Amino acid sequence: MRRLFNEAIKIIEADVTWLHDAAERFEEVAHMLPKSQRASWILLTDMYDERADTHARLAAKMRHPAHA
User: Fold this and answer.
1) Which of the four pLDDT bands, split at 50, 70 and 90, describes residue 65?
2) One-letter-per-residue 3-state SS of the chain
3) Is residue 57 part of a domain?
4) What pLDDT shows up at residue 2?
5) What sign results for the dihedral spanned by CA atoms 40, 43, 49, 52?
6) 20 part of a folded domain
7) In this predicted model, what pLDDT tens digit does every residue of 1-48 receive, in sequence order?
């Protein structure tokens, strides 16, 4: 059971990395667009970063449940 729990944590942590990487790519795209088209891409960047932060907090709570 603990092994499966640890695997779940690793998946969540991989998601954190993927989400932050995706946010960085969206931001790069946004800065290549005309200002009139940037807003939605910046919003998407913020949403992915926020989701990554949420996943990171979840993984931390799962790793250290007594500190949550």
Assistant:
1) confident
2) CHHHHHHHHHHHHHHHHHHHHHHHHHHHHHHHCCHHHHHHHHHHHHHHHHHHHHHHHHHHHHHCHHHC
3) yes
4) 87
5) negative
6) no
7) 889 999 999 999 999 999 999 999 999 999 999 999 999 999 999 999
User: Is 43 domain-assigned?
Assistant: yes
Judging by beta carbons within 10 Å of its beta carbon (0-12, 13-18, 19+), is residue 9 exposed, middle or buried? middle
Tell me the C-alpha distance between 7 and 62, whole Å.
11
Tell me which residue range forms the domain holding 41: 2-15+34-67
Task: Answer yes or no: is 54 within a domain.
Answer: yes
